[in-house]
Amino acid sequence: MKSLLCLLAFAAAANSKTILIVTADAADFVLAAGGTIASMTATGDRAILLRVANDDKNAWDLAPEQAAARTSAECEQAARALGIEKVVSLGYREGELGGVSPTELRDRIAFHIRLLKPDVLFIPNPYAEYVEQLDRHYTGMAAEEARHTAALRNHQPPLAAIGVEPHVTRELYYYAQPVDPRRREPEAAATFVPQPKVVGIEAAFSKKLRAARALKTIQTAAAMRIRQRLESTGRRLPLLDTVNEESVNKLVEIELRGLATLCAKDFPYKMAEEFHYAGPEYQVPAKLRR
Amino acid sequence: MKIPASETIRIAGKRRVYHACALLLAAWPAAAQKLPLGANPPGRTVLIIQSHHDDHTWEWGFGGFIAKLTGAGYTAYFVRTTNDEKDSAVGWGRGDEINHRESVAATRFLGVKDVISLNWRNDHMDSVPIKEVRENYILLIRKLRPDIVMTWNPWGHYDRNPDHRKVARAAGEAAWMAGLANVHPEHRAAGLEPHRVPFVYYTQRSDYGRGHAPNVAIELTEDHVRRKGEAFFAHNNVRGSPALAKSIRSRLDAQGLEIPELGGLTDEQAVEKLQKWSMESWSRQVGEQHGAKYAEVFYFRDEWDHLPGLAKYLRDNVVKR
Questions:
Q1: How many domains does chain B fold into?
Q2: pLDDT, tens digit, for every residue of B125-138?
Q3: Could you tell me if residue B119 is inside a domain?
Q4: What ipTM is given for this predicted complex?
Q5: Which of A56, A230, A251 sits opposite B318 (nearest CB)?
Q6: Does the beta-carbon distance from A226 to B129 stay under 8 Å?
């Protein structure tokens, strides 16, 4: 019996995948992809988070340094809630990626792709329209490019010299919160054709909720900004008459349920997340696929 | 594209009726799904952030909507980001000066209170760091505290103009980042508090392909359209090339045709009339598509659209104090 269990564990480990999640900020990957990531780690996949910016701006009544430090710790908690093994932070200042060299950012992400050799990449969808945080766009562009250059020996030649060999990542998930009105339009048939993909997340919703609630600094700031906007226009949201841990947690749950319902619309799920997905079959010309 | 009979201008000659609109070089709004007619958002102040002196007065610009808002009591400020030095036939410095003066004159037709020129170099915005332009806008947003920002679309496709692209992204980010206290915290020392802009309208260049799908139509009156036309033509330095009227008239003449309404007018007078017809026709055609006499179309970001998971809940549960 013991040897059978060992064999099963070995088989599961052999089938498990390594997932690298690239995120611009601490909230985006949780809100847009947290349920799917939690589902994958629950089945034995190993996940690592690469966090590009430091979230020093998205806070209420905290200096940038305090905001960055607190959100870093909270991001670690959120990642743990989703079963992510490790968080690597690149430390760029939030909202300032537009001033960072795209090649520098790409190469830093490519380094981690070559080092960690993921089977699956989650990256912000740089083509998702009306996402107001352009850091997500810049990160998505750099990560998409990094997936490509990480596979090529002539990029970053010194890496091979230290044993960090080129690597091809076979599966790619582009994630974004559902603000793009045209996000479900199918892409044209060409060689590289990531297609809309909807993933049910009911079983993983509680983990996603725990992760989102762990981001206390960001969530409290969001609640305070909503309340401030309402107060300045003579309105109120009864839930936010008092902003405390309980009301913020409730607001986060409402938000996550709202997101999950939006993404599940027209699909046989109660809760879902939406992606554009490029698996191996989408990376060859359509005419050769059969 | 077939133009309905109501859109034609009568041309006398061997052929009695001719679709003169086709000669106006206007790109006609593509057939589109009927959009909801948007109401004026609640508020008092609108900030129009454009790359150039005349962006808001083109057919696809915000001119009619600006006139509508100021008529309803809004205070409007116009930000002219570049110096428009290339948009002139009279040389850089003089062109900039004239374009600024005409920009002030044009915005008066629309009820705009002030023109704020940022003086970035025209057609060179690609090489300007986005953060620098964005900070200009954040400071102005915190000072003027607009309820509405109108600007170029950060997600627009096929826009070859570097100034449009940079302004779109910088203004799109400034509209929400101005609400974060840790973005340029030094502004607080000058008495400027954070302010997120709740309502944003992006230009939709329906002549630029499918990257420009509007989601709202703004109903206009004949007076709004007339004032937009006046504002358009107030940019004398770059409008009214008599060559356009000359070219149209010589092409018609070669076919034995003429436009009676242009008879006796100089080429300068004729081109003004043609361009005002073009503005009226465009606005009317857009209006007819969306159930109004006249209209403009834009992409509208409502107050809670940045929170897709909460937007419905907030709409359903927010109450008056």
A1: 1
A2: 999 999 999 999 99
A3: yes
A4: 0.91
A5: A230
A6: no
